[in-house]
Amino acid sequence: MAALLLATMMVMVLMAALLLATMMVMVLMAALLLTTMMVMVLMAALLLTTMMVMVLIATLLFTTMMVMVLMAALLFTTMMVMVLMAALLLTTMMVMVANAAFSFTTISLRRHRNITPFYSICYQYMKSK
Questions:
Q1: How far apart, in whole angstroms, are the C-alpha atoms of residue 97 and residue 110?
Q2: How far lies 92's CA from each of 64, 81, 87, in Å?
Q3: Average pLDDT taken over every residue of the chain
Q4: SS in 3 state form for the chain?
Q5: How many angstroms separate the CA atoms of 123 and 21, rounded?
Q6: Range from 53-57, 78-82, 84-88, 111-115 carrying the lowest mean pLDDT
């Protein structure tokens, strides 16, 4: 009877050890679950960081496009200034042609009809003073 009681106690001790081992396995599985959750949090943070970098790259691309638009506007303004300068050059050339024609006409009039132009009259008047 004592041997049976001893055997029963030994079985209870073995069951307690098995229960303890099971609890230790459960603690290890809980730790593994916690580690997996921490890895998932880190991956979510990495995904968020990647998305933020993509937003920054998109912002940089938008800024680059805006700079290109500004450069195109500057190029257009430069072209317009060049067109204005060409028009001014053409006007100057037309004035030079008109001046040459006026001089030629004045010279022709002086040579053929002995007509004194206005600036020569002014010069003669100032010279006589």
A1: 20
A2: 41, 16, 9
A3: 89
A4: CHHHHHHHHHHHHHHHHHHHHHHHHHHHHHHHHHHHHHHHHHHHHHHHHHHHHHHHHHHHHHHHHHHHHHHHHHHHHHHHHHHHHHHHHHHHHHHHHHHHHHHHHHHHHHHHHCCCCHHHHHHHHHHHC
A5: 128
A6: 111-115
Residue corresponding to tokens 């040579």: 111
pTM: 0.44
pLDDT above 60 for 62 = yes
Cβ-contact 95, 88 below 8 angstroms? no
Euclidean distance between CA atoms 15 and 13, whole angstroms: 5
Q: Which residues are CB-neighbours of 116 under 8 A, at least 6 positions away?
A: 110, 124
